[in-house]
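Today's session is about reading a structure prediction critically. Students often jump straight to the picture, but the first step is always the sequence itself: look for stretches that repeat, for charged clusters, for runs of hydrophobic residues. Only then move on to the predicted structure, which in these notes is written as discrete structure tokens rather than atom positions. Here is the chain we will use throughout the hour.
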Amino acid sequence: MTWGVLAILALGLFLTYVIWQETRSHLRWRDLVQEGNVWAIHELVTAEIERWHEMRPPHGVTAVLWAGVQTAELVSLGNDHVQLACGTEGEYRMAGGRREQVTSALDAAMRLAAKLVEMVLYDIPEVKVDRVRVDVYSTFGSGEGTAEQRCILSTTASRVAANGVDWEEMPARSIIQTLESRFDVDAAGNARAIEPEPPLPDEPAEASMPLEARNARPRRARRRRR
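Below is the predicted structure for this chain, in token form.
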């Protein structure tokens, strides 16, 4: 009986310690981000992008749209901004024995850009940047018979502008037109390639790495060598 009580007490103390450590870590990350620590923001953003790459499509998100989300790559980052690049194509299906386009590359790009802007602004734990830019690329044939990826849509969203968007009800095209966006179409409405603006500043992360993170690196390296 006594040993059982002691075991329960020990388990309770262990769980309390684990919860305390998790809470302490959570608060530390929050404090670093609020201070504008670029290293902390970089770690949280890259970890979330990697999680997207491994996730199944969330409820309500089509497999095609999520496949575009999983192409997202970090281009640049600062204490108040994040820039991503991603890729998508038009959608086709069989109809009457032939393939027909059901979604143009530009419409697919608008859906993808709107989704990524929303996710970066609202879904990354602790990170509350003021500006997000998403450049969407699609495939074009070159004059030499090869294919190349070119930008067809560049969207920049401030948090102020994004807060005025009805993300649940507004169609993607309306969202993109509400935000600061660049794209071009030909006479038939097909997307033309555009030249994106120069990347947003990519602020170095290593310089702002906190001391406890620097001290933890050698310990991790020693564990790997063992």
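Discussion point for the tutorial: The chain has a mean pLDDT of 84.
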